[in-house]
Amino acid sequence: xxxxxxxxxxxxxxxxxxxxxxxxxxxxxxxxxxxxxxxxxxxxxxxxxxxxxxxxxxxxxxxxxxxxxxxxxxxxxxxxxxxxxxxxxxxxxxxxxxxxxxxxxxxxxxxxxxxxxxxxxxxxxxxxxxxxxxxxxxxxxxxxxxxxxxxxxxxxxxxxxxxxxxxxxxxxxxxxxxxxxxxxxxxxxxxxxxxxxxxxxxxxxxxxxxxxxxxxxxxx
Length: 220
Ligand SMILES: Cc1cc2nc3c(=O)[nH]c(=O)nc-3n(C[C@H](O)[C@H](O)[C@H](O)COP(=O)(O)O)c2cc1C
Fold this sequence. Notes:
Order of helices and strands: HHEHHHEHEHEH
Strand order of the largest sheet: 1-2-4-3
Bound molecules: flavin mononucleotide
Radius of gyration: 18 Å
Shape: globular
CATH topology: NADH Oxidase
């Protein structure tokens, strides 16, 4: 697969096969991601991969916190309110999801079940958490975003599916305590990873993109 095909065919996977990924492949994915650029080559990323029984325990903990109506407290503040043009794109995405799944995401119960699916890593055998020191600037958050994209593209090239998940940062403090990560670290993103279940209808949906002409202005 060439780079353009890899970028264009990567998509968020929300149903995985249970089969675990060999540890050496997971490490090869990280080994590729570490070649991402970063501000002054600062490489502001730390990675924890969780699997097996411990992953199940972490899922249970997150679901328990949700059941107790614990307010989310991510290290990065939730975004919004969105400017109208972006808000319209998000609404269009939600509408398409509703049509595909038959689920009404304006219902609190549907939203809760969707969070639970996130907390259960969409059935993936592994969860990846990306951390960095909380004292780092916004440039480092930018850098870890580049790392995350490289990681997901490398995974795709190895025949794996991924989904980036802000929801996995909802209970950042608890996740850090569970994983033995110092509280001084910032949890930026969770990513589920595994073999995609391509027979699941949820994985048949790929959100569209803005027209290139709308995004880019060419000046001569
Ligand atoms: C920073 C970030 C956070 C995201 N959080 C979630 C999430 O919590 N749960 C989820 O199912 N998808 C999440 N996504 C996936 C987006 O919904 C997805 O990337 C977008 O709809 C485009 O679809 P694609 O990845 O299939 O191209 C997130 C994506 C990014 C970049």
